[in-house]
Amino acid sequence: GEPCHVCGAAIQRSVVGGRGTHVCRTCQRPPRGTARAVASRAVRGPRWSERVTPETVGATRSERAAARRRSARQGEAA
Q: What CA–CA distance (Å, rounded) separates 11 from 40?
């Protein structure tokens, strides 16, 4: 977005419930509860939903290998 007229950092726009808000993350600190939540999340680590990627969804490497072995055995028996 456009630069902040105080510090020059980029203004960020967020939309919640169809309403837009423009915030300078450098000049405007988050509310006290939000800062506490961010600090506790840093201690715990990221949420599980933030760790989900196409590589992490589905069977593990060992599960895929076992499935390949099973299908190879079934092919031999037929």
A: 26
Q: Which residues face 19 on adjacent strands?
A: 16
35-50, pLDDT tens digit by residue?
666 666 666 666 666 6
**C-alpha–C-alpha distance, residues 72 and 52, integer Å:** 30
Dist. CA 47–CA 50, nearest whole Å: 5
pLDDT given at position 18: 82
Q: Where do the domains of the chain lie? A: 11-70
User: CA–CA separation, 44 vs 31, rounded Å?
Assistant: 20
